[in-house]
Write a structure and sequence with these properties.
The complex is a heterodimer of chains A (371) and B (372). In chain A, 6% of the residues lie in helices and 46% in strands. Chain A is mainly beta. In chain A, the strands form seven sheets. In chain A, strands 3-2-1-28 form a four-stranded antiparallel sheet. Chain B contains 13 helices and no strands. Classes of the chains: A mainly beta (371), B mainly alpha (372). At the A-B interface, strand 28 of A face helix 4 and helix 10 of B.
Amino acid sequence: MHSMAIDRRTFLIGGATAALGPKLGLAQPACARDRYVAACREPSGTYAAVAYSEGCGLGHRVALPGRGHDLVQRPGTSECVVFARRPGTFAIAFHVDGSAPPVEFRTRTDRHFHGHGAFSPDGHLLYTSENDFDAARGVIGVRDSTADYRQIGEFASGGLEPHDICLLSDGRTLVVANGGIETHPSSDRENLNIADMDPSLAYIDIETGDVLEVHRLPPSLHKLSIRHLALTLDDMAFLGCQYEGPASEHPALVGFHRRGESLRLIDAPDHAYRAMQNYVGSISADAAGEFIAATSPRGGRALIIDATSRRIVSQIPLADVCGVAPRHVGASFLLASGSGDIGGWSRAASPAPLATTHEDVAWDNHMIRLG
Amino acid sequence: MPSRSAFAVLRRIVQSGVIAAVLAAVLSVQAVAFDHEAFARRSLDRHIIPGYRQFAAAADAQDTAIAALCAAPTDQALEGARNAFGEALQAWGRIEHIRFGPVMEQNRYASLLFWPDPRGIARRQIERTVSQQDKEALAAETLADKSVALQGFTALDILLFAPASETLARSQPAAAFRCGYASAIARNVARVAKETLQAWSEPDGFAARWLHPGPDNLAFLSAKETTQAIGQSYLNGLKQLRNIRLAGPLGFKDRKVRPLEPPVPNSSRALALAIADIEGLRALLLDTGLSEPPVAGAPPHTVMQSTVGEFDTAISSIRKAAGLSKKPFEDAAARTQLILVGFPLKNAFDTGAAYLSEEAGLTIGFNALDGD
């Protein structure tokens, strides 16, 4: 009888505990293994970085002084850094378990962040993409994570408007997506050089700051801004692009490159890119490096691409989708939208419609999975 | 008493019936789908084409006036050229919020008004062109292949209004290059304006794509996408005006960033341009019917009608600022007036965004609007 009463009670309140799980500290067993973190806007209009896991929903939260963009995890730790959306100047390092107070740091007054960063493999140094706006020059800032992220150096990004950056598996070569668009904080986010845009993909030796290679698209595609990167395990860089040319033109928005080879774009049949309205907002590789997901909030859809054959294997509709991160199992991604919807895609379940849950936040452009 | 009670019941039934009928009417109004096709047609016929037609006419008049100045330089001719510049600039301001279609091709948009220019690129390039007497700047055809910073209103503002511009009223050899270059710019602006209008209105032109969306149409898949284009023009136009054109020169920044130089500073027409921008956005609401009832017979859309009023408030504040100082972005009293303009523009943005998402069913996305 007693156990039955407990079962009944568990049954009756079970739904509520599942929904309120993280706040009550209950229902931990229902949490999926993967934990994620993303910037978001909250219902009150405030901005935050917040942890999330499937089954458990929202977790630890850190308030931000303005809108955030991407995050990066410091290797081997529970510490993450969230960067301001351009032209913001703040970044905040915080522990996703709340074990230490957050540390806020800023750019120099004549720089601003472009929203992305990468750690050295030992987690000691943080590299950040920044704008030297009065010189219209892209730079990579270098900071010491063991000294409250004090800036200790800077080198050229090999192009204009470095956006996403990633470290190759050698731990020494930084690949930089130089968006090629000139902006200045006095002019908000306005594209100041649409006629002369010059996007590029650069490889930089982080020990010397030497620019090792710079690759460009053909001149006819100089308005195709290379902005986001996803690396596969064998250092193939997949590129997520945005086209600033006329809306009636629809160039490929996803490309790929490996050092020493030429830069190529991935053709898509049936107007797949057209539905993305010339805009990829985020790109991610799955855990096995076999699939690439590229999201378009403007088109309200995500493309899944086979990384080997470079064919599109799925097109997933989700309004205002942008954030995308791999689940720990291969051939699977988590997708998050600006209206708060969040859903998992997996090759095994495809092409079933995406099942989504909802959180009461507007998920921002990028989401990362914690290692 | 019983009859009175029965009357009360009856009255209640009648009232509830009336309420139900009213509710049904309201619901049916809301249930009527937003007519994207009709909206596209109104936007084209009442706003886009007339806007470009007026701009093309004003650009032609500017071309004629500057050509006349070069042919017979006098104070009067210089005055005529300067006035024509003001008219053409305002005509552009009234339609510059349309940032899709032919105007975005062949760098037309960028060539008309090179601004903002935080690093002063245009001034340097224009001064070099004048000092070196670059002959390629003397013909519209060769000028069109040069930097966009040399081609539009920003360059004309320097040539027609900067200190040395007084020489344009005299028959001096030194003024000949300056006038020839100004004339080439005016001719090029007139060509761009005319080509933009033609590209919309010629048979099989952009208007045909605008009115006939579909799978074979590379610009628009559905009529909802044309509404989206107009909606974005409205929202981005307001954002540009508020956050860049006004806030930039006011210098609202949390760090040491120099305030932007206002557009066309030599002619002191930055506020006239801002008013033209607002007039254009207000006209967008009125011309396309966004401020009217969603269906015939429905009550007027009071929120959108009040938005028209927000634009009137903004214009009147800017007029006050313009009346207070020749350098309104530096004068304290004028700045106060300009700071006030931010509020009605913000309201117009918020009500517009709500209307477009609720009534027209557009996704005004947190990420979709972000652009990063």
